[in-house]
Specification:
The structure holds two protein chains of two kinds. By secondary structure, chain A is an all-beta fold. In chain A, 0% of the residues lie in helices and 50% in strands. The chains are: A mainly beta, B mainly beta. Chains A and B meet through β5, β9 and β10 of A and β5 and β6 of B.
Chain lengths: 121, 112
């Protein structure tokens, strides 16, 4: 399957600081990437859709000023948690979308990164 | 709106036994259907997907799933489970704007 990487895999930071998480698509160019948050023993919650070269689209209830998303290239999207607080501690997972019908073997499928564990003290 | 139901929160199965995980969906059009597996502390790995055609889909790690339109189901099966199959399994429906709607997940425990 396609490879999507995330960095860092885990991060511990102090309350009030900002943390940047990178998501890279290694096997294909991803015009669309997604950012999810997962709480323990729960399913994934979509936070935002990241489109290359344009503003991200946030799901209802997600603060766009707190969770800054940048999709500067077809292989890289970043999520910055600004002024992090303990309640932002969570598992953040990104995915890259393999494109429409012309996407070949990766078409119409989201490929997920390994996740980033964020702990805010 | 689309929704995905995984009726079984937790399943325990003996190693070597068969496994079936249930998934029902609600979606107005023909859905794109996926099964993903998540090991503890890891991201999601795609097991298999269904877009169209043959309703029995083969995936990785010996898994298969069958799309039944009449039952709005996409159940995942494996004939003989291995201890390494212990994980969380998510069924998902793909919708028009490339998003996925996930089920709540089923935790699979494998006993020796």
């Amino acid at each position: 399957g396609a490879v999507v990487s995330q960095h860092p895999s885990r991060v511990i930071c102090k309350s009030g600081t900002s943390v940047k998480i990178e998501c890279r698509s290694l096997d294909f160019q991803a015009t669309t990437m997604f950012w999810y948050r997962q709480f323990p023993k729960q399913s994934l919650m979509l936070m935002a859709t990241s489109n290359e070269g344009s503003k991200a689209t946030y799901e209802q209830g997600v603060e766009k000023d707190k969770f800054l998303i940048n999709h500067a290239s077809l292989t890289l999207s970043t999520l910055t948690v600004t002024s992090a607080h303990p309640e932002d501690s969570s598992f953040y997972i990104c995915s890259a979308w393999g494109g429409g019908p012309a996407g070949g073997a990766y078409q119409e499928t989201q490929y997920f990164g390994p996740g980033t564990r964020l702990l805010v003290l | 709106a689309q929704s995905v139901t995984q009726p079984d929160i937790h399943i325990t199965v003996s190693e070597g036994a068969s496994l079936e995980l249930r998934c029902n969906y609600s979606y107005g059009a023909t859905p794109y259907l996926f099964w993903y597996v998540q090991s503890p502390g890891q991201g999601l790995q795609l097991l298999l997907k269904y877009f169209s055609g043959d309703t029995l889909v083969q995936g990785i790690k010996g898994f298969e799933a069958e799309f039944k339109r009449s039952q709005s189901s996409f159940n995942l099966r494996k004939p003989s489970v291995h201890w390494s199959d212990a994980a969380e399994y998510f069924c998902a429906v793909g919708v028009n704007d490339y998003k996925l709607s996930f089920g709540a997940g089923t935790t699979v425990t494998v006993r020796a």
